[in-house]
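Notebook p. 47: complex prediction with glutathione.
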Amino acid sequence: MNDPASYEPAKVWKWEAQNGGAFANINRPISGATSETKLPVGKHPLQLYSLATPNGVKVTVMLEELLALGHSGAEYDAYVINIRDGDQFGSGFVDINPNSKIPALMDHSTSPPTRIFESGAILLYLAEKFGALLPSDPANRAECLSWLFWQMGSAPYLGGGFGHFYAYAPHKIEYCIDRFTMETKRQLDVLDRRLADNKFMCGDEYTIADIAIWPWYGVLTTNALYGAAEFLDAQTYKNVVRWTKEIAARDAVKRGRMVNRINGPLEEQLHERHDAGDFDTKTQDKVEGAKD
Ligand SMILES: N[C@@H](CCC(=O)N[C@@H](CS)C(=O)NCC(=O)O)C(=O)O
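Predicted complex, structure tokens below:
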């Protein structure tokens, strides 16, 4: 890589070499499938193909919240798409999400089955399908959707910007870290001010806006994302910290975080989820214990 101070972009950029950063092996300048693969389909109406990254956790938390509210039609099978291994470029996955990113959902309760990609679109689809976790009166619904779309537009600065340059880039580049730290802290301040006067993002009601924002900005303040809580002085965003703890204590959130998780403590990893009982019997500590 060139010295940043002397780098001059070529007239036309060429894809010549990996840049050395984490995930470099899966970065490509073209879309589309690289292999023929068929995805598994389980017994439930909803089939989720995902991973427990912040965008993936949004959907598993949503599904667990819907089930906790008694919506049995939200029963789902969840399969791991290992993005480090390039599973997102298999043809079966690309048929559901031409953008090759998790999460992706198929709803087999419709004829023909409905595909949904983009985590925000999935949250909205499920909220509308089950009439839950989205306010029904127009003003509150508008507020909720504003925060949902705020998250979708803001998180790339946090993930692709701050997280990438702080945690994953092969070199620490002060200019990039400064630029995206500034923006990340500004976003945390936006949330902190909103949560100073509101229990949840849209007032007293817990909604898909909280479900979208929490896995990114809430988890960031706990140090579980990029190990950056101290660097960002996250504890000073007191209202975000209070809201983060309240949401983390919800049973559906505890379950949702475990689904499709392939790292961390074994008892918190449920690689595939096919049944509510799987949380008690199929976590990795039990699966690996059974092999001994
Ligand atoms: N805007 C998308 C972003 C999804 C996304 O970036 N997913 C990441 C994991 S968090 C991914 O699949 N990355 C694989 C890749 O970039 O090849 C959403 O919210 O669904």
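Notes: The mean pLDDT is 96. The beta strands are 46-50, 76-80, 104-107, 114-117.
Next step: compare against the earlier run before touching the bench.
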